[in-house]
Amino acid sequence: xxxxxxxxxxxINRWPYKFNYVVKCFHDSHFEEGIIKLCLHQAHALDSExxxxxxxxxxxxxxxxxxxxxxxxxxxxYEYIFNLAYDKQNGQEIKNKVNIxxxxxxxxxxFHACFYHWMLMNKHGDDLLExxxxxxxxxxxxxxxxKIWIYxxxxxKYAESAVQxxxxxxDKENKSKLEERLRLLQVAQSL
Length: 191
Prior knowledge:
- The protein is mainly alpha-helical.
- It is built from 12 helices and 2 strands; from the N terminus they run H-H-H-H-H-E-E-H-H-H-H-H-H-H.
- The N and C termini lie far apart (51 Å).
């Protein structure tokens, strides 16, 4: 299977292979590392100039069909990977640490942003805070400001954490109940 992966990656732009078929074969063979690597390479091959990341970081204009289409194509590749992050056992989702560690080795910033978003949408935000990647802190600041204080606290940045927590409490758009705000204020005081 490693040889198939190498050949697929080597010829990813040269021959019209059946990407979905190769991924399915890897899946049927439980070659999850191969799925992760192949999908990341395929996403890059579809958008080697990084226009999808430009679109994502910009205004995400729906009118920019080229960049939006590149984003959608890359995201399609990433979805195969997201499904490997957790295993279902007895009706519960169990974190697959081996696969997640392999995913986090990626230097694809757009993959990281999409994976973090997927984790938040699938109620895995607490697991997300355990990651140590060069992209996570900026993602949290922009997309999950209610979690950045926890991340900084866990990483020994106590003063930053306290300031961010106070900002979260004072935020007029924060819909938390008074009891929750008081609890968070007590946490901030203890930092």
